[in-house]
Backbone:
């Protein structure tokens, strides 16, 4: 895969992730603002969802998909050389990443496409850890407790646990542990990205194969 193809793949995934996270963040605040991207498929939540339900779905999306954004960026940076700003896979028109304006553009893109989703995840996580999860027994919710409690040995795909107030199905202990692990992976890859960008800046620019000097002969 060429660097150009990798950048196209990365920017597509990064923008889609950013749009979803911003929309979910706004939904937890009951905001009417939403970013819309026309796609062959539609990701849409029920307008009647509670704040906690949006937070649960947002953390699921973040944990499952966001780690790919810094992962691909790390892969791009490891194949780059000559400039830390050029190692970041964002490109805006024909602005040279090594130039002064280019460095500002790359820095802003890093904050928006990498840092903002992480900050949104922190916001969603603060909502999730304060939730109550209840056992679903005979069309009733009983034995409500926090997300780290699991009094019944239920399977991860059944309807044993739901959020209080008849929210979505949520598997306590299992889901938060997986979310913490995958979020930690995302944070690690983000830190690794910064390191690889610095390393790229210290590597000499790859110039490719230089043509051999012509052989000259002199006749005396």
Residues:
């Amino acid at each position: 895969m060429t660097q150009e193809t990798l950048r196209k793949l990365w920017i597509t995934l990064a923008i889609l992730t950013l749009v979803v996270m911003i929309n979910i963040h706004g939904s937890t605040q009951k905001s009417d603002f939403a970013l819309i991207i026309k796609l062959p498929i539609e990701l849409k939540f029920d307008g009647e969802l509670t704040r906690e339900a949006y937070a649960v779905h947002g953390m699921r999306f973040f944990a499952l998909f966001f780690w790919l954004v810094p992962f691909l960026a790390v892969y791009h940076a490891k194949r780059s050389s000559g400039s830390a700003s050029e190692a970041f896979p964002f490109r805006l028109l024909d602005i040279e990443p090594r130039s002064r304006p280019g460095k500002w553009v790359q820095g802003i893109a890093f904050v928006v496409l990498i840092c903002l989703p992480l900050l949104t995840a922190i916001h969603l996580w603060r909502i999730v850890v304060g939730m109550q999860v209840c056992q679903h027994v005979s069309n009733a919710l009983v034995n409500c407790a926090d997300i780290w409690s699991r009094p019944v040995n239920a399977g991860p795909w059944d309807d044993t646990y739901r959020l209080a107030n008849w929210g979505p199905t949520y598997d306590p202990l299992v889901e938060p542990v997986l979310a913490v692990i995958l979020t930690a992976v995302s944070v690690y890859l983000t830190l690794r990205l910064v390191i690889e960008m610095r390393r790229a800046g210290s590597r000499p620019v790859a110039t490719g194969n230089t043509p051999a000097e012509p052989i000259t002969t002199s006749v005396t």
Notes: The two ends are 53 Å apart (CA to CA). The longest strand covers residues 140-145. Residues 208-218 have pLDDT under 50 and may be disordered. The chain has six helices and three strands.
